[in-house]
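<amino_acid_chain>
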Amino acid sequence: MTPRRIDTVALTRVRARDPERIAALWDERAPRPLLPADGRLLLVAADHPARAALGVGSDPMAMASRSDLLARLVTALERPGVDGVLGTPDVLDDLLLLGALEGKVVIGSMNRGGLQGSAWELDDRFTGYTAREVQERGLDGGKMLTRIALDDPRTIDTLQACAAAVTELAALGRMAIVEPFWSVVEHGGVRNLLDPDSMIRAVSVASGLGASSAHTWLKLPVVDDLARVLDATTLPTLLLGGDPPGAPSETYAAWGRSLELPAVHGLVVGRALLYPPDADVAAAVDIAVDLVHGGVS
């Protein structure tokens, strides 16, 4: 299925002539329960561009076209069984104007300041949603990237900022999704360590952030010995998709095996579903829906 064309000129016209319409539409949007009856979530991730992470596979500018990205997102969100979306304010406001967020869980991305490839990449400043804005716009929660590098002193600032965000979201009764990695700086870039022991360390630190863990969830990659990694916490977990290097069938199989673990409550996937090799977004999303929800009648 080819994604529909999006009239971005119309979106820009509203932003220029009637910006108050965006706030009004957020106020009018009806909330839904966070979890469906089966207690599992499938969220589409769309916060990569704000961190200058535009690449998919071998194409470093795959996500550069906003009209194309929005078309793919609308296609994904229309598929039965897709629970919602995770994104930055610009993307979510566009989807709101397109009417794509009705009946959906909406998670705001909070810290996008650690731009991919920058000298300050590990300084993950909060440049997106605040906890207060998450509440005022009726969003269901906020997500924060939490990269921990023992040889970079900026890590402590990230930890402090993420802890404050977890505390504020919990006080407002909103979900906090923490995406932790144990990271190293090498060859001028940042590399996340995905071995089980490193992930256990990251999970252990992330689980203890904030003054309350009552509303904290984790967003973790599919790694080897994931059951042992998840045994490091009691927090509910969503699996991230990332930019899979292998064939889609291998990725889907890994997701399926991981979703059988009791602590795993669903998927948060962006590029793997929005930019599949065969360009059939709907088909890729339907496979993910079947994995998470067992099909939708």
